[in-house]
Amino acid sequence: MKRFLKLITMEMEEAFRAAGYDEAYAKVSLSNRPDLCEYQCNGALVAAKAYKKAPIMIAKDVTAHLQESAVFSYAEAVNPGFINLKAAPGFTAEFLNEMAGAENLGVEKETKPKTIMIDYGGPNVAKPLHVGHLRSAIIGESVKRIVRFKGNQVIGDIHLGDWGYQMGLIITELEKRKPELPYFQEDYEGEYPQEAPFTIGELEEIYPTASAYAKENEEYREKALQATFLLQSGRRGYRAIWQHIMQVSVADLKKNYSVLNVDFDLWKGEADVQKYIPDMVHMLKEKGFARYDEGALVVDVAEEDDNKAVPPCMILKSDGAALYDTTDLATLIERESLYKPDQIIYVVDKRQELHFVQVFRCAKKTGIVRPEVDLKYLGFGTMNGKDGKPFKTREGGVMRLENLLREITEEMRKKIMDNRTVTGEEAEATARTVGLAAVKYGDLSNQASKDYIFDVDRFTSFEGNTGPYILYTIVRIKSILNKYQESGGSMDALRIREPESDCEKALMLETAKFNEVIDTVYEEIAPHKLCAYIYDAANAFNKFYHDTRILAEEDEEKKAGYLALLKLTKEVLEVCIDLLGFEAPERM
Q1: Contact, 527 vs 139, CB < 8 A?
Q2: Is 249 exposed, middle or buried (0-12, 13-18, 19+ CB in 10 A)?
Q3: Which pLDDT does position 416 carry in this prediction?
Q4: How many Cα atoms sit within 13 Å of 47 on the Cβ side?
Q5: Which residues contact 128 (CB under 8 A, 6 or more apart)?
Q6: How many other CB atoms are there within 10 angstroms of residue 390's CB atom?
Q7: Coil, strand or helix: which one is 276?
Q8: φ and ψ at 292, to 5 degrees?
Q9: Which structural domain, as residue segments, surrounds residue 18?
Q10: Do 206 and 57 fall into the same domain?
């Protein structure tokens, strides 16, 4: 189904051709003076030079061919050569009726779907999720849903940090506390216990304790580094401990991510790609891509037109150890081998931009990925407190993600209980739903690359550009439709009618923008633009709601038209919030 703006533009192109001018000048855009018109075309101003003619004359020639148009109810040329336009009410209503019956509400799927991988999440195992993990999860999940909605095959990968020094620290500390465990007996040949020798709570205490002690005790640190080496070299007991760490950590991560309504298609980590590293290193040496620099193996990735220095991509340290560059390149090898992606989108803190510049260039230069693979870095800004600094607990520490969500949910529960519309278990469930919307919308309504202030009071408000306001709008529409059905009305075969008021038409035009907005959000990977659209649509509905007798309307045909418009508006808003990663309750 063609976009609303595209259909309007096609009508304008026909008018330009009929008037003897090139249709390339017929671009139509939303009006920057909505008090005067809904759409505008400035093509006559541009065409004036080519045709050596006054812009207003060209504009009048064009509008003369629009006076009988079924697409426009108003087309007027105004000095110095603008063309002001209003969409015809009947044309608008018919477009919405077609949209209501179309698959995906008229959003066209990709004609050539791509395989797209999204790398988001990135937590280290054996550590609790904290607020620093929030943006990657929220933005990545929304991007995954948006890209998938357009018909692509999308694979989301959490990319766990599961193979580094932290593992050696945990093993060393565990041996210090429980040396009698069989994992530390080199001559042990029996089966290791099925149950982990620690809980997730104990594991989360072991790591920071070990990390802090290693900074003070060099002998302990050396022992942890040796444990890391032995683990990676395949020592049987250490591999068994690692398996326990993975099982306990991943189960906890899945539980926490599920609360965020975030899920991953792949639960892979750095450990999965270790097998690719030796052959990769050999290839880089063999083909002359890599060189030694003060004992480290590096690949030069600087380019002549760089505005600032781009250091070489380091493959191995002077002691032979692998780095993030190494595992990210090996991950690309695995992804090429197993999935053959057309595009890989990395949703990562923007402070890591240089790292990804180095890795992407190295991957392309060395043939690790095919030339046509699009490697895209979506860097996000910092989530800050009201003081403008990275968000902390009241005590100044890094806040655990589950604690933040608990605080938000409790705040929403109080507000919902104050409204006295829902109580008990329903209030708790509703609070979780609305609290998640508050967090996700609060984050996604900001451009991903920018830092933003995480303001609990503002994000949980039922007024303004917030998640709760959007959900309240959807719940209000649900309530109207439910009352209509409870009174015996049927939603079957309802059709949107020509608008009879400015606020009704404004809502129709906002709803008609849906497929245009989705395509823009998809092309630009910009969830914040979807939030802006949702807010505009919610405002348009609420204006219509306050100015219109809907269920009290005595003209049954007119009432049916209102309800058909509300039904489509609800469906549009529900699709939008699903793409953002949250849903609306039945009541609030």
Answers
A1: yes
A2: buried
A3: 86
A4: 29
A5: 204, 252, 256, 400, 401, 402
A6: 14
A7: helix
A8: -95, 135
A9: 4-87
A10: no
**Tokens matching residue 409:** 């949910």
Nearest CA among 443, 434, 407 for reference residue 582: 434
Distances (CA, A) of 468 to 415, 417, 464: 11, 14, 9
58, 184: one domain:
no
Which residue blocks in 487-526 are alpha helix, DSSP H? Answer: 502-512, 514-524
Q: Is residue 329 part of a domain?
A: no
**Residue 387, pLDDT score:** 87
> Residues in the chain with pLDDT < 70?
394-396, 420
* Count of structural domains, the chain: 3
- Please tell me the predicted confidence (pLDDT) of residue 389: 87
**Which one-letter amino acid corresponds to residue 213?**
Y
Question: 440 burial class (0-12, 13-18, 19+ CB within 10 angstroms)?
Answer: buried
The reported pLDDT for the residue numbered 502 is 96
Query: Do 77 and 173 belong to one domain?
Result: no
Give the single-character DSSP code of 391. Answer: -
Q: Quick one: pLDDT at residue 396?
A: 65
* Token pair in block for residue 416: 């919902």
Give the H/E segment covering residue 304.
none
Distances in Å between the Cα of 560 and the Cα atoms of 17, 88, 141, 142, 545 are: 40, 20, 37, 34, 15
Q: Has residue 540 been placed in a domain?
A: yes
3-state SS string for 418-447: HHCCCCHHHHHHHHHHHHHHHHHHHHHCCC
Q: What is the DSSP letter of 160?
A: B
Asked whether residue 27 is assigned to any structural domain, the reply reads yes
Residue type present at position 104: N
- What does the alpha-carbon distance between residue 522 and residue 150 come to, in Å, rounded to a whole number? 8
- 211: which 2 tokens? 């990390």
Last residue of a domain, one of 259, 288, 322: 259
Which residues are within 8 A (CB) of 24 and not within 5 positions of it... i.e. 6 or more apart? Answer: none
- How many residues are given for the chain? 588
Return the residue matching tokens 């709008």: 473
Q: Around Cβ 386, how many Cβ atoms within 10 Å?
A: 12
CATH number of the domain within which 553 lies: 1.10.730.10
Q: Is 180 exposed, middle or buried (0-12, 13-18, 19+ CB in 10 A)?
A: exposed
Same domain, 83 and 186: no
Check whether residue 427 and residue 572 sit in a common domain: yes
Residue 509 contacts residue 92 (beta carbons within 8 Å): yes
- Residue 80 inside a domain? The answer is yes
Q: Which string of DSSP letters, residue by residue, matches 23-49?
A: GGG--EEE-S-TTT-SEEE-HHHHHHH
